[in-house]
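Table S2 (text version). Query chain:
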Amino acid sequence: MSYRITLAEIESSLRKAARACGLDWGVAEEAGKAARWLAAFNLPGPETTLRHLQNLCGQDYRNFIPDCDLVPWQASGGILCPIITGAALADRSAIMLEGSAIKLGPTAYPLLLAATLGQAARYHRTVFTTCWAGVRVNCFANGLTIAGNNDSLLLPEAPNVCCCREELSEPEQLPATLAYEIDREIYDEIDRLAFQTYAPATEHSRAGAGAGLTDND
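Corresponding structure-token output:
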């Protein structure tokens, strides 16, 4: 059974789910934005983000932060987190704007990386392309196009990834939506994770709920 969810709900739920899996709030916000950006173009952003977060749960996510001084970028844990790496790429977008490509080592769910880079493309009003395993995701200021081997689009891990700026003509029209159809079981898994960010009630918090004893009227 499917469930229709708004893009705002996707961003909020995945942000909380990412925080529940141990990511800092800033990185968790990037996770929510990436899921929303992909869902807006009917790509499985929520599902892919959930799978990645489930793999991160219980681990120190700092092991998946890129060492940007290496070529290609590498993580001490052996695989790059696409959300953290995408944020690092956005911070260093000037390198790509100047015409240089950035190469990455093994990267989890590179589609999420493309989503984060897509938001940088919107900010700079340019085209950033992410390539892996024969697939190219071209991110424009108002959306994306996909070329090459679509079978590699949802790979859980790519051995190498290349990100660069491209001189491409923007498509006349790119598909977008304000809501997304998601499998109810997947939505429930996301919701269960997101719920973990709520602090449990304590005697102190319950004592402070409701009206006070002083009438100020």
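Notes on Table S2: The chain is about 40% helix and 20% strand. The first helix runs from residue 7 to 20.
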